[in-house]
Structures are given as C-alpha cells and as structure tokens.
Amino acid sequence: PRPVPWPPGGLSSATVRAGDQIRGLIGVLDFRFDAWRLQPSQEPAFLATNPRETAPGPRHEASVRIMALNLGNFFNGDGRGGEFPTSRGAGTPAEFRRQQQQLVNTLLAPDPDILALTELENDGYGPASSIAKLAEALGGTWRFVSTPGQDGDDEIRTGLLYRSDRISAVGPPERLTKGPFESGGRPPLAQDFGRTDGDATVRVIVPHLKSKSCRGARGDDKDQADGQGCYASRRTNEAKTLAAWSGSDTRRHHSVGTLIIGDLNSYAREHPIAVLEQAGFTSMVHHFHPCTEKTCGHYTYRYRGQKGSLDFALASETLKPRVMGAWSWLVNADEPRVLDYRSDHPASGRGPWRSSDHNPVIVDLKL
C-alpha cells in the first residue's frame, strides 16, 4: 500500500521483519479474499523480536570464506545501461542500479574469498555480460570462472567468482551436462581453488536444482502431496546425478575435499538432501546450528511466512573436519518486499537488506 502504514512513522524510520511481534492489537475482524484480517482501530506496538544481524565477523587469517547467494535474477540488459526491461529481474536501468548496489553491499559485507552464485543471466562471458559486470562492480581483485558453451539452455546459470589476491583457480572448471542436465536445467559448476600462498585445494561445486514451481509439471513431476512440491522427482534425479558425478570426486592431488554450496530448492528433510547425505555430504549449517522441534535459528527462505532452508553448504567426509564454522546470514528473507530493488520506496536500496529473497550461506574452512 501507499503509503506503507506500519510501523508507526513508516519504513523510512524502521523496518518490520518476519518474526517480530505485535502487541496491543485491537480492531475490527473481518473475512475478505479467503483470509481473516484485523483492521486496527488504534495504534499497536511493534516489537523488534527478530532484529537485523550484522554480517558475520572477520574470518581467521588462516581460513578461506566461501559464500553462496541466490541473486534473485541478476540480468543487466545489454550491459551498457540499455535493453530494459529484461525477461527477468530489473525492469528499468534505475531498478538495475539499485539491484546491483544492494547485491554488492551484501556480497562484500562478510569479506568472502569465493562466491558461489545462482540466478545469473545466462549471457556468456564477454565484457558486457552479467558475470563480468558483477565482478567489475565488486572490485578490481575479483575474477570469475568461465565455461563458454557449457552453461545449458536455461535463462539463468550458476557462477563462481573469487578474489585473485587471496585465491587461485587451480585447473580447468567443469560443468555437469549429463543426465537430467543434458537437455535442460542448469548444469552445476565445479572448480578447484587454493590459497595463493598454499598448496592445498578445495573443490567447490555450485548447483541450482529445479524449482518447486508447477509450471509444465507432468506425471511424477506433479505435486505428490508429500510436502515437497512439484518436480521433486526431477530434483531427486538431479541430486543422484550430482552425487555420482566424477566432478565431485575428492581424490585429487593436494585436495582436501569437496563443498557443494548453493540453491538446492529442497528443504532439509526432502529426498534430494537425503540422497546427497547418503553420498557422504553433510550440511555444515545444520552441523554447527542443529534445529530442534521448537526452534531453528538458521534458514535461507520464507514462503508465506514459514521459514526453512533451500540453500546449503554440504561438505564431503574429508572436508568436514576442516570446516571452522557455517552460518546463514539473515539479511534478506525476513525483510519486507517493499525494500527490494523493484520498489522506489525511500527506504529501498539502503544497505544490504532485501537484496534477494534468499539469505546467503557462509562457510569458513581451514585450507
């Protein structure tokens, strides 16, 4: 609504987040558009019981920080300020500038060494491409991994970027283009990385499994009413192919293991996560911050108010002992949508908040 009525004074002075509380709520109860609503007759009190978090603190100098984020459809038009609106993402140059600035604020705040990204525009690797322009916006030390001709036929792809003053890309990158990724989907990307002052390497794989959207779903891909949504069968097959991929093999010279990190479009108890766990991969966020029946402090997504994790950092058995910490930074999913780049609200574009609809996942490992 315009103006946004809550909290008192509007969002220009404060925010409201999913998980906050309201007290003193008095008003008229009615039922419209298939939902009960309460129209306040006097000003309620908003309590910040889910306050904003600052970015995770500085990493240990002997560690490498890897961060994953779904960018929320990062499409940059022709890369020179034109050809908006795009098929996804920003509709105008002004929206794109807000989107890019919010994303850069989010991506740089935790001071990562490696970025594993999803929902990048699949537009090649030229100077005007989305990934090249994002690396440029992040700063002069950032480089990106390039796999021309192997990125699949989806409008979006996965990507890897790294700080070249701290990290080296070791050997050629690989894309998984077999099985369910051969004629559709978004091929996972793998690359070995090492510190510029060391010999040990880690293999980082960034996947983006099929979404839960039911568009075009047939047969086993329809919603089976088991809580997993549409395309659960396809996501499970994608997870099986990923688990069996030679690109996820850790038996390499100087390799300390493999980290699968990105958007799996599956919650923690769904079949695709079970497949990868059975293959020897462990969710590091859940390892360091286990959920109970009553509380789960780390999550990456909210759907109709309910929270869960669609984004994971899964470490192989050999890598697990080297992981020093793992977090979800609750910077996006709890924030109101009016703060994202599509809005011209005065509070939109300030800081990292609501740069995407997903929270980032961050891992520190000793390398």
Structural class: alpha+beta
Largest sheet: 6 strands, mixed
Please, how many domains?
A: 1
Number of strands: 18
Tally of helical segments: 5
Q: How is the topology of this model organized?
A:
Elements: E1 21-23, E2 27-32, E3 35-40, E4 45-47, E5 63-74, H1 93-108, E6 114-121, H2 130-138, E7 142-144, E8 156-163, E9 167-175, E10 189-195, E11 201-206, H3 232-244, E12 255-263, H4 271-278, E13 282-283, H5 284-288, E14 301-303, E15 306-308, E16 311-315, E17 323-328, E18 361-366
Parallel strand pairs: 5-6, 11-12
Antiparallel strand pairs: 1-4, 2-3, 5-18, 6-8, 7-8, 9-10, 10-11, 12-16, 13-16, 14-15, 17-18
Characterise this structure.
The protein has 367 residues and is of the alpha+beta class. The protein has a single domain, classed as Endonuclease/exonuclease/phosphatase (Deoxyribonuclease I, Chain A, 4-Layer Sandwich), CATH 3.60.10. The chain has five helices and 18 strands. Helix 3 (232-244) packs parallel to helix 4 (271-278).
